[in-house]
Structures are given as structure tokens and as C-alpha cells.
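We emphasize that the prediction below concerns an isolated chain of 379 residues; any contacts that depend on oligomerization or on bound cofactors are therefore not represented. The input was used exactly as deposited, without trimming of termini.
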Amino acid sequence: MMWVTTSTTTKTLLFNKFNFHFSKYKQKHFTLQLRLMSNAKTARVSDSSSPSHASLKRVGTHNGSFHCDEALGCFMIRLTRNFFNAQIVRTRDPQVLEGLDAVLDVGGVYDPSRDRYDHHQKGFEEVFGHGFSTKLSSAGLVYKHFGKEIIANELKVDEEHQNVHYIYLAVYRSFMEAIDAVDNGINQYDTDQPPKYVNNTHLSSRVGRFNLDWTDPDQSSEKENEAFHRAMALAGSEFLDSVRFHVNSWLPAKSIVMETIAARQTVDPSGEILVLKRFCPWKLHLFELEGEMKIDPPIKYVLYEDERSKQWRVQAVSVSPDRFESRKALPSQWRGLRDDILSKESGIPGCVFVHMSGFIGGNQTFEGALAMAKAALKM
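Result of the prediction step, given as a C-alpha cell string:
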């Protein structure tokens, strides 16, 4: 991996994280894979005025303190056909930036025709579209313009394939939008009250901790670039985890949930109870499909078998995907009870537990779980 910085000397950095390789797909597409490497590789850090390497394009971002958006943006753009394995040039020098093939998060220009992806300039209000209104960061801009190519490579299909579009939107909703919002200082909730707790565990916060500590006596550009590389690796690995989850797990689940919704009235005439014959990630699909299919009344409970315990679960559907409150929690008189005490209270044999919040319960059999859901609907 090639690194270019504004330092005056050429040095060598060691890294053992990631190595990219690609192969042709149907003479049009390449498959990009991220592999953990056990052997160390060297990365050259050279002066910004040193001769460029014609075989690799150069992508610029600013030096100094870094954030999640440019670390992720640099990672993502290097997954693309045009910028595969590009050198990363970290500088704020306008003359150096002008000569680069792409520039992210610096330069004051958003112009995709020139591969300029900054979002700090006055008047910038670009959003992802498709119903999303969060202002984009540099990572969001890269995803907006290159996300479909990255996803198509993972799916091994053409960019116009319908599944690419599904995952493109889903990854933005569940992963990318938060990066954009945090970088642009957008609160998750509209409130004048202070938060009830501090959350420093999200990706943007974890990337930020890679910045050099002010007490560190070594504040060199070499050490800063090494830290930025680590930030790229972390942000990029979680981005690819999200893409691959949606490809391998989320997308196949969509058809399962759709079939389950279509058959809901065979489970209970109310149509408010779903039964998953096989557990899958169902929550986001349920909310989306309810809207698309105009389902009324909304679904209250989802039943599925716990593959480890071979017991059945009754889960109350939340009021929205990001809320803990349930549309109709399991009855208050059941909550916190277990086993025989719960079975006696509910009048349903085989009960295992009901959570204190009422969002989930369990029974030893499908018939018992269904009886719990049906009884809860009426209470």
C-alpha cells in the first residue's frame, strides 16, 4: 500500500492488517476480497513532492486530526475499479491536491465529475436521496457515487440488478447514515434534554481514538499516518461486515419475511401474529413490508424457534426499528415470571419466561408460544 505525506523524508511503515486482490468477473467485473494477513508488508511513506507512481492513482485527504468519514471514504474508494489500491496523499497543500486523481474531505469542492468529495464548503447541502435527508459527509459522498459498484462486486452481479439497489439502501440506512450524521453534528433525537448516558462505543468515536494523544512525545507525520491506516482498517472492516451481512443474511431473509406475512392469517385470524419457520433477521423487513403492503392492523408478535435451546420465542414488535418500546408488550402480570409459576399465572403449559420489559417470552413448544401470543392479544 502506498502512502504519500508532506514529510521531507522517505520512511518505511510496517502493517499486517489487510491485503487487497481482485480477479476478473465475466470480463467486466472484478471481485474484491479483504483478507487478514499474518505476514507483515511494508508501506512507503514519501514526500508529497516526490515522483508519482504512474501505475497507481492518488487519492488525497487532509493531514492532521482525522475522523471516521475520511478514513472510511479512503477505504471505500480504494475498493473501486478506477481507484483500486490507490495511494493515499494526506496534505492540505492546494497545489498538491489539485494534481491528485481524487480528493476527499478537503479542498472545498464537491464535483463528482472531477472526483472531488468535500462537504465543508458553504452552501453544501447534498443528501443521499431515496427519502433520506441527512447531510452527507465525505464517506457518504463516496458511498453515494461508488456504493453500487462495491455492492455489485460483492454480489457478483451487474450494478443495475435489483438486489444491488435493495442492499445499497439498506447499508446506507443501517450503517452509513450514522457516519454522516455524527460527522455533521446532527443529533439522533430532537430534544432539549441532556442525554441519559454517554455513548462512546460507536464507530466514529472508536476511529477518533486512533488520533495521536496530545501527551505522546512523538507527533510525527509518520506516526500520524500509521494511526490513520489503522483507522481505515477498522472503519473499512466494519463497512465490509455490514455489506456482507446484507448480502449473505439480510437479503435472503426478505423473501422469508414476505412469505410469512402473506401467511399470517392462517396462524391467527387477527393477522397480528407471524410465525417464522426458520429464524432470520426480520425486524427491518417487517417494517418496510408493512408499509409496502399497507398492512392494518400492524403485526404485534413474531414467533420463532431458538435453534440452541429448541424452545420457541414470542417477541413483541417494537414501535419502530430503533425503539425499545413494544407495540403491545406481553402482559404485565406475566413479566419477570418463569417456568411453573408463569405457566400457572398464564394458564398455558410449558412456559419458560417473560422478560421484565415484556418484549419477549418463551415456551417449550410452538403450540405453547402461539397460545401465549393469542392470549396476549386479548389482554
